[in-house]
Amino acid sequence: MSEIIKVKNLTKKFGKNVALNSVNFTVNQGDFISIFGPNGAGKSTLLKLLSTQIRPTNGDIFFNGIKLSDLSSDFRRYFGVISHQPFLYENLSAYENLKFYGSLYGVENLEDRINTLLKNVELTGRKHDLVRNYSRGMLQRLSIARALIHDPEIIFLDEPYTGLDQHASNILTNILKNQFDNNKTILMITHNLQKGYELATKIMVLNKGDIVLLEEKELLPPSEFEDIYLSSVSAGVR
Ligand SMILES: Nc1ncnc2c1ncn2[C@@H]1O[C@H](COP(=O)(O)OP(=O)(O)OP(=O)(O)O)[C@@H](O)[C@H]1O
């Protein structure tokens, strides 16, 4: 298995507040890591560091063995980020939004890719509607398609199930299973214990900026996971 991400002594401080406290771990290609932890544990900070939205205070991140600081900005095409922000233009249609993002990334066979993604998120019939007329569920589904337009190798998700309606939730689960089957690497923050455990190959629990658990799911029965998670939640809120 090839090591796609390596994190060494990664630390992020906001003033005196240590959001992430010198963490070390590796991610192999094809891993699906679900990240759990109480509020303020450092989960979003970790994903923002990995997806280069913020810079570390100390420590290093390596992608495919190359230090982040030595990579050109072009490597961002290997990431897809699904978070609370949809990053969509409301005065453009779904098709135009995907065309815009796809062109930015220089996606080949863009028309086919757009059509496939719109089909996967069940928006084909609304392809030419302006996004400002979309319902919340439709927006959520389109933002999933937007994050995947360039077929990223690594997908970062920050609580993607929060606020999703059942339809969008089922679509997201199918898409994540499909991405996993295609050997994509997935790191997902979630408060949904059942969904996160079900989908993952590895489980991470953060607490007060430390990794208190990183284990293969196969080696971690659900009851043991729940015990560790619950004790971190009761001890963890800052
Ligand atoms: N931009 C920021 N400025 C100052 N402090 C921040 C900033 N972002 C995060 N923090 C602090 O860093 C710590 C970790 O926050 P983070 O958002 O990573 O936690 P989290 O585990 O994602 O929590 P939640 O589940 O509530 O989203 C918290 O104490 C938070 O207040």
From TrEMBL:
<dbReference type="InterPro" id="IPR003439">
    <property type="entry name" value="ABC_transporter-like_ATP-bd"/>
</dbReference>
<dbReference type="GO" id="GO:0005524">
    <property type="term" value="F:ATP binding"/>
</dbReference>
<dbReference type="InterPro" id="IPR051782">
    <property type="entry name" value="ABC_Transporter_VariousFunc"/>
</dbReference>
<dbReference type="InterPro" id="IPR027417">
    <property type="entry name" value="P-loop_NTPase"/>
</dbReference>
<feature type="domain" description="ABC transporter">
    <location>
        <begin position="5"/>
        <end position="233"/>
    </location>
</feature>
<keyword id="KW-0067">ATP-binding</keyword>
<keyword id="KW-0813">Transport</keyword>
<dbReference type="Pfam" id="PF00005">
    <property type="entry name" value="ABC_tran"/>
</dbReference>
<dbReference type="InterPro" id="IPR003593">
    <property type="entry name" value="AAA+_ATPase"/>
</dbReference>
<dbReference type="GO" id="GO:0016887">
    <property type="term" value="F:ATP hydrolysis activity"/>
</dbReference>
<keyword id="KW-0547">Nucleotide-binding</keyword>
<protein>
    <submittedName>
        <fullName>Heme exporter ATP-binding protein</fullName>
    </submittedName>
</protein>
